[in-house]
Amino acid sequence: MPDYQSKNGQIVAVAANGTEVPIQIKGVNWFGMETTLAVPFGLWENADNGTTAYEIAAFLARNNFNAVRLPVSVENILNNSPPQKGVINLSSNRAINGTDFISTLQTLVKSLAYRNIGVLISMHRLTNKKSGATWFDEDIGVTQDDFLDAVDTVSSNLCGQDYWNVMGLDLKNEPEKATWGTGDDDDFVVGCEKIAKVMHENCPQWLGFVEGVVSTHTVTIGGEELEYYDWWGGGLQKAGNTQPKFTIENKVVWAPHYYTTAVAPQRYFYGDGTTSDFSTYVELSDEDLLARVEGTMNDMFGYLADDKNYALLLGEFAGLYTKDAHPKKTTKRTTDLTIQVLMEKEYAGGFMWSLNPESEYQYNPADTEGAFTEGMLLDDWLSPNSEFLDAFTPMDAMPNLRKFPCFPIEDR
Prior knowledge:
The protein has helices at 53-62, 74-79, 101-113, 144-157, 188-202, 286-300, 330-344, 386-391, and strands spanning 3-7, 10-14, 20-23, 25-29, 67-73, 118-125, 166-170, 207-210, 216-221, 224-229, 252-254, 257-258, 314-318, 349-353, 360-363, 369-373. The chain is an alpha/beta fold. It has one domain (3-397): Alpha-Beta Barrel (TIM Barrel). Helix 4 runs parallel beside helix 5 and helix 6 (286-300) crosses helix 7. The model has no long low-confidence stretch (mean pLDDT 98). Belongs to the glycosyl hydrolase 5 (cellulase A) family. Keywords: Carbohydrate metabolism, Cellulose degradation, Glycosidase, Hydrolase, Polysaccharide degradation.
């Protein structure tokens, strides 16, 4: 299997003979394994809707997507829970071994490998219902040892030539109540070091994808001082000076999140005259919205791309798109501009949220709360959401966007 490294601002697959292949990511999130279903949504193929793992892989390959981020839960890993009955059609998904959680994950990875699609496993939730505000929470029954046991299980069972397309772990999704560099129990820098140490003992080839923490900040954009709150997973302001030190070099990938009004309205997406509760909002011009998106992205994490050291990509971004109810399409434009920025700043790519048509958002437009759903696939799990799909076409121009390389096994 490749040795995945993070250097020169890129993810690099390194062969046993030293051949290096840089890879940029045009990826999707495909959720479900972090829930009580214990399997990605959509594999229930029936008369009404649903699909197969091979069809998902073929769809992604046809549209130049080269990677999938798969959320999982500590609970499902430790219990080795099989998929819930009825949520996977095992006759049409014959490639999937649904005996237990690990066999499901292993065979899903192999199904994606058939199309040379890379996999990032996201340590997403502590339990199937609760994400956890840092990487452990004894109040909901998940200790540091529990989390590390789950990492040990995944990294020992998903490493090797059979699973060559697994690039690593997103070490903990959205640790919004963790600290950064404090030395306390909830210090995410220390947490990442502990998690990566266990991972690398089993699988030295993997990368550790590191998200940010959450706080309030100010940034000056266009001469105006703006206050902003980090997106969950997005706050990497301190990472320029304080970084996790893994036991193996070139293994850190910065993987922050950046979203839109559909997740939570942000004052910086709107102009003068917008009220604090967004009951009145003023949409910005394309030029001004771009300045706000670029300015906040750069302040949160984008500056990390400047020194071309560790790779920087977006672990989650986008969301509601074609259904944007703003008259001037602020939510939709925010996604378009996010892609523009990650391209211009030469990020290592990103994983859009999400493939699932059940993806739910809370605001549409800024002044209207509710439950609004949209994904890359329509509700039948077969038809593409064409306009949303096309939004990511600009990423096809990334110079190192390519299928994940499966290097030949060399004789020892």
